[in-house]
Write a structure and sequence with these properties.
108 residues; 4 helices
Length: 108
């Protein structure tokens, strides 16, 4: 299963059981996957959707390979170590990157 498929499964879990995201502010996370390019995770009105392509107004961009993204979606990536060793790069608001990790943990 590709990392994008895993993300879609996670989004479906979130939308089916939105109590952990209902109070989230509307925002866009951009994920730049080294192998397959950018995608957006859009939180809006207590729901989440995935959109292909770059977001001109993303508040944070995570840059990583698909293997690390897949690990992150399964809450199996040590993000601090990945960041320190260059396996994860963050552009924009670091706090939002941590918030996304917290949300992922809630749906595992």
């Amino acid at each position: 299963m590709s990392a994008r498929d895993e993300l879609q499964e996670l989004v479906e879990k979130m939308n089916a059981n939105p109590q952990h995201i209902a109070s989230e502010k509307d925002r866009i996370y951009q994920i730049n996957l080294e192998e397959s390019g950018p995608l957006q995770i859009v939180f809006q009105a207590g729901q989440v959707q995935v959109i292909e392509g770059a977001a001109p107004d993303a508040e944070v961009t995570l840059i990583m390979n698909e293997k690390n993204f897949s690990k992150m979606l399964k809450d199996k990536l040590n993000t601090t170590m990945a960041f320190m060793t260059g396996g994860l790069k963050v552009e924009g608001k670091m706090g939002l990157a941590l918030k996304l990790q917290e949300i992922v943990k809630l749906y595992q």
